[in-house]
Design a protein that fits this description.
With about 90 residues, the chain is mainly α. The chain is built from three helices and no strands.
């Protein structure tokens, strides 16, 4: 991505906050079969409280979204939308 660590961290926090507050809803995405395609991993460190806020929001919004989402999916979709690149 070529962004500085602090800018990337801000993007991740913005993505999670927008999801928690209901300002951002990631589109569902097709899941690949295990072992196919390139994997994307996001390694994040956050407080237990922030993680719990996300988990609670994901559970509450599951019916609205129509699927179970993850932090990685939300961040990836948010960055794709923000930087106008398709999420995979």
């Amino acid at each position: 991505m070529g962004k500085s660590d602090s800018s990337s961290t801000t993007d991740v926090i913005d993505a999670m906050t927008a999801f928690i507050t209901g300002e951002f809803s990631p589109a569902d995405y097709p899941r690949r079969a295990k072992g196919t395609g390139a994997a994307t991993y996001i390694n994040l460190r956050m407080t237990d409280e922030f993680k719990q806020l996300f988990d609670d929001a994901a559970k509450l919004r599951e019916a609205e979204l129509g699927y179970v989402t993850t932090i990685g999916h939300v961040v990836k979709a948010y960055l794709a939308e923000k930087y106008d690149k398709p999420a995979e």
